[in-house]
Amino acid sequence: MELRFSEDRRKHPRAERMCLSVRLQGESFEVTNWSMGGFLLENYQGHLSTGALIRVVGLGCRDGKVLDVDLPARVVRTGENTVAVSYLGLDTNAYHFLADALNKCGEMRSLVKDPASL
């Protein structure tokens, strides 16, 4: 797994090559990179615009079971075939799914904290 950190406004480290998929607007998409705060799609062919409010209704691994969720989110950036989405909130199941996925890589273990320990 490769981590990319930016010195801009990012609050959460990005994970790449971890086969996360999301379901929104009736379609499933493989994400390019993702964090506990949101995700990036680079092969998006839809019509979302920056600022659009959406609902993420599924999280999963490319070849695995999809977890049904209902997460409010906002499109924070769009480009040619690209859309960046930020979660407006994570329910308990989504939080644990994403934390477990990040923790599968030893380098991420110290970066993801259980909210009960805060």
Would you kindly provide a written description of the structure presented here, covering whatever features stand out?
By secondary structure, the protein is mainly beta. It has a single domain, classed as Thrombin, subunit H, CATH 2.40.10.430. It is built from one helix and nine strands; from the N terminus they run βββββββββα. The chain has one helix at residues 92-103; strands at residues 3-4, 14-16, 20-24, 27-30, 33-35, 38-41, 53-61, 66-79, 82-87. The radius of gyration is 14 Å and the shape is globular.
Task: Give a short summary of the structure.
The protein has 118 residues and is mainly beta.
Tags for this entry?
mainly beta, Thrombin, subunit H, about 120 residues, single chain, about 10% helix
Any chance you could write out the topology, listing elements then pairs?
Blueprint: E1 3-4, E2 14-16, E3 20-24, E4 27-30, E5 33-35, E6 38-41, E7 53-61, E8 66-79, E9 82-87, H1 92-103
Antiparallel strand pairs: 1-2, 2-5, 3-4, 3-7, 5-6, 6-9, 7-8, 8-9
